[in-house]
């Protein structure tokens, strides 16, 4: 009896698989009709950048949280996210050249939808400098969230993020390399919860990492609960701006749950505390979950010719020597600045 059922079961399973695949691709086409063929993805773990997929062998030091172009005015202001691409290249090109000289091989750009994301400009700056940037899908917190996100269903947001992570952003030819979002300082709002649950859904499909600008550790606790409920894992979550939480026990709690702990205002006057916290995390066995960056840059469209950018070189030139003096050896520094950011963003 069982033998005669087997082929039938196989046929049925195959039918279901083919049916599910067809449905999935139909859903993708419906939500993003602009997907065109992009360079075939590499088989090895890689980071999607403005210059295509990059493997670890092609990269060294990676800064996981910087900005090349940001507009912190909300979407309804005139001139929001507008700039001449040539002006951005003129201002930020030299900064990326300086970063290269300081040993930086890629920068993760953290300007999501809501704070002036312009993947087309990022791509032009990258092409002018030969320097890869990692662009996000996702959307910032209230009040920067635009109306279409408030109105969209969780499923629609999930499919939009998935399409940008597996296809491209707005016909730019740039594939999103990760998901950036945020939550309010006093607690996550209903719309921010919807965005995060959608991101977790997109993460399940794409294995992309989710990074969240979150100032309070107890809000991160709620965010990790939401991610787990959606079937994704805290191991694919970066707590951006963790340094803003004074209670170090919360850093340890989120690390224990598997999240990445990102100290990303290196060079802003908190470095002695950063070094102390890094050493404590290393001693507690969480060296594989630490990320370090400056949160610097950028071209600001609200300023004449983009304003005055801050360089991306402090970590390499000043902070890492101090970290070494504090007893963190070269192989650990390599882990923190090369291996960790690669593993966080690779998929
Ligand atoms: Zn930032």
Helix content: 40-55%
Major β-sheet profile = 6 strands, parallel
End-to-end Cα distance: 44 Å
The CATH class of the largest domain turns out to be: Alpha Beta
Tell me what the CATH architecture of the largest domain is: Alpha-Beta Barrel
What count of domains describes the coordinates?
A: 2
Annotation field: number of helices = 11
Sketch the topology as an H/E string, one letter per element.
Answer: HEEEHEHEEHHEHEHEHEHEHH
Please state how the strands of the largest beta sheet are arranged side by side.
Answer: 6-7-8-9-10-11
Descriptive overview:
Helix 2 (85-101) packs across helix 3 (119-129), helix 5 (154-166) packs across helix 6 (190-206) and helix 6 packs across helix 7 (217-229). Mean pLDDT is 91; it is low at 1-35. The chain has helices at 2-31, 85-101, 119-129, 147-151, 154-166, 190-206, 217-229, 248-256, 271-283, 314-325, 330-345, and strands spanning 46-49, 52-55, 61-66, 104-109, 133-134, 136-137, 178-182, 210-213, 237-240, 260-263, 290-292. The chain is an alpha/beta fold and 347 residues long. Helix content is 45%, strand content 13%. The chain contains eleven helices and eleven strands. The termini are far apart. Strands 6-7-8-9-10-11 form a six-stranded parallel sheet. It has two domains: 1-31; 41-345, Metal-dependent hydrolases (TIM Barrel, Alpha-Beta Barrel). Residues 65, 67, 110, 295 line the site of zinc ion.
């Amino acid at each position: 009896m069982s033998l005669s059922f087997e082929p039938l079961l196989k046929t049925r399973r195959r039918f279901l698989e083919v049916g599910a695949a067809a449905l999935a691709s139909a859903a993708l086409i419906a939500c993003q009709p602009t997907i065109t063929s992009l360079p075939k993805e590499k088989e090895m773990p890689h980071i999607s950048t403005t210059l295509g997929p990059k493997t670890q062998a092609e990269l060294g030091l990676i800064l996981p949280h910087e900005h090349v172009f940001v507009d912190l005015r909300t979407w309804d202001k005139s001139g929001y996210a507008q700039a001449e691409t040539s002006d951005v290249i003129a201002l930020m090109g030299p900064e990326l050249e300086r970063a290269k000289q300081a040993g930086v091989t890629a920068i993760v750009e953290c300007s999501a939808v809501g704070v002036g994301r312009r993947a087309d400009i990022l791509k032009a700056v990258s092409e002018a400098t030969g320097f890869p940037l990692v662009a996000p899908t996702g959307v910032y917190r209230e009040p920067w969230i635009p109306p279409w996100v408030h109105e969209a269903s969780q499923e629609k947001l999930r499919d939009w993020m998935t399409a940008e992570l597996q296809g491209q952003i707005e016909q730019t030819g740039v594939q999103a390399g990760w998901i950036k979002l945020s939550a309010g300082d006093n607690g996550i709002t209903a719309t921010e919860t919807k965005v995060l649950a959608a991101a977790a859904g997109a993460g399940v499909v794409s294995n992309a990492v989710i990074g969240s600008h979150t100032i309070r550790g107890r809000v991160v606790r709620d965010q990790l609960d939401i991610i787990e409920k959606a079937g994704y894992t805290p191991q694919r979550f970066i707590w951006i701006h963790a340094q803003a939480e004074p209670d170090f026990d919360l850093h340890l709690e989120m690390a224990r749950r598997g999240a990445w702990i990102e100290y990303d205002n290196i060079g802003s006057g908190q470095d002695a505390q950063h070094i102390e916290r890094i050493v404590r995390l290393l001693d507690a066995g969480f060296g594989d979950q630490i990320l370090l960056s400056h949160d610097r840059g950028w071209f600001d469209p609200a300023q004449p010719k983009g304003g005055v950018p801050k360089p991306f070189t402090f970590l390499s030139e000043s902070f890492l020597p101090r970290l070494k003096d504090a007893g963190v050896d070269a192989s650990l520094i390599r882990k923190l600045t090369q291996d960790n950011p690669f593993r966080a963003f690779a998929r």
